Amino acid sequence: MSDNKDIHEEELNPQDDLAQNTAEEANENMTVETTSEDLLAEEKDRYIRLFAEFENYKKRTTKEKMEFFQYANQDMMISMLDVLDDFERALKEIAKNGNEADLKGVELIYQKFKNKLSDKGLKPMAVNAGDDFNVDFHEAITQIPAPTPDLKGKIVDVIETGYQLADKVIRFAKVVTGN
């Protein structure tokens, strides 16, 4: 009887082996599925990052192009500032001499020239005596003793007008400050 019992146990063992093999295959399939899901998640993450990087690149190059076009004529504008200054000096001299016809003619040309430069983005900086000195917009030519105590550290006189092209300072306002 013990021999029969051994035979029956042996017959049961192949079924147990089959069940064990099926469980191992299921575990293997789960790890393969898990691995493929992980791989898919990694590739999806990589794709999203690459797409975002490309979008940032497009935005950056578009911004650089806009800045290039905005400041492309900066050198020409800087060279025109000397002509603008000459017009202002000419207007002062003509006003002193009192020739009304010459003054109107030069003033007309000056306004037209100034408007054309303004259309291209050139803006004069509004600087007045008594304003606070700001190194981001002003260049101190010299310091003098302040005529009044409230002008210490402030602008006493404006020697040359400063200009901005869009939001960028292309020429600082030359000023005299109180000491």
Summarize the structure in words.
With 179 residues, the protein is of the alpha+beta class. It is 64% helix and 16% strand. The protein has 3 helices and 6 strands; from the N terminus they run αααββββββ. The chain has helices at residues 2-71, 74-97, 100-119; strands at residues 122-124, 138-144, 155-160, 163-165, 168-171, 173-178. The strands form 2 sheets. The chain has a 3-stranded antiparallel beta sheet with strand order 1-4-5. β4 and β5 form a beta hairpin. The termini are far apart.
Can I get a quick summary?
With 179 residues, the chain is α+β, with helices and mostly antiparallel strands. It has helices spanning 2-71, 74-97, 100-119, and strands spanning 122-124, 138-144, 155-160, 163-165, 168-171, 173-178. The model is unreliable at 6-12 (pLDDT under 50).
